[in-house]
Amino acid sequence: xxxxxxxxxxxxxxxxxxxxxxxxxxxxxxxxxxxxxxxxxxxxxxxxxxxxxxxxxxxxxxxxxxxxxxxxxxxxxxxxxxxxxxxxxxxxxxxxxxxxxxxxxxxxxxxxxxxxxxxxxxxxxxxxxxxxxxxxxxxxxxxxxxxxxxxxxxxxxxxxxxxxxxxxxxxxxxxxxxxxxxxxxxxxxxxxxxxxxxxxxxxxxxxxxxxxxxxxxxxxxxxxxxxxxxxxxxxxxxxxxxxxxxxxxxxxxxxxxxxxxxxxxxxxxxxxxxxxxxxxxxxxxxxxxxxxxxxxxxxxxxxxxxxxxxxxxxxxxxxxxxxxxxxx
Length: 328
Known about the structure:
Layout: H1 2-29, E1 35-39, H2 46-62, E2 66-70, H3 77-85, E3 92-96, H4 99-105, E4 117-125, E5 128-132, H5 142-151, E6 157-160, H6 166-178, E7 183-186, H7 191-199, E8 205-208, H8 210-218, E9 222-227, E10 254-260, H9 266-275, H10 282-289, E11 294-298, H11 300-321
Parallel strand pairs: 1-2, 1-3, 6-7, 6-8
Antiparallel strand pairs: 3-10, 4-10, 4-11, 5-8, 5-9
């Protein structure tokens, strides 16, 4: 019996050694098949538009396809759950947006960015207040809009993302800072749905991410009035004022990050960190800037601190709106 136990222990040790060797070998050879990159918003939303060309660059660097898979719904929690619960082998990663923080604040998910493997942050997107050119009130300047909204509280229709999505948070930040009242119409998704309402004249205004709005602006269907934030956008849209210039302090960022499931092997994580530095590529940064977004590459260690700082502003908005469910 004693000899049998020793033999069994030896077998288990050997299996463990072989298992570790196989895992190390798999990590060294990674990737040997296509990678799924989950985007938790609809196709055509700002995050989706910005993620696709970066995934193409990374595909070239890795020698394997990085395939964008849209998984919108439930405030992006459906997509985040799929990333979080995936096998941590590097073949399922995805886009982490501001909702990766706010979902926990709202009680939609039990985890936030601390519970994923964070690869990098690669953009900082501040939304833009846009006006429809198809309604009876085609506002031309932010000053004109503010004057009208003050004398007609609750009259103007303002389209934005679904409750709890980043555009909704940024809309709340805008109304709380200005004290203006609107008939806010959340859409069942992100910017792709909201811009359709404004461009079609169904809403007077929208708080929209510029990647979603760009083609509608160029077509003359909507007009940008102001950046909902502290600074003007990169050229060619730097002519549009920031709300801070009018005295309104709003600093709520919609970030784009690359995340994977928790406990990914260091060798695989390091490879992904290296290739996603393609976000620093001049061509990609030009693509981002042309869509009214700030190219912002932040490596993993600094990215955690950056997101921790953002939580403070989101918590204040959620508390004022009555949707805060996470205890302090």
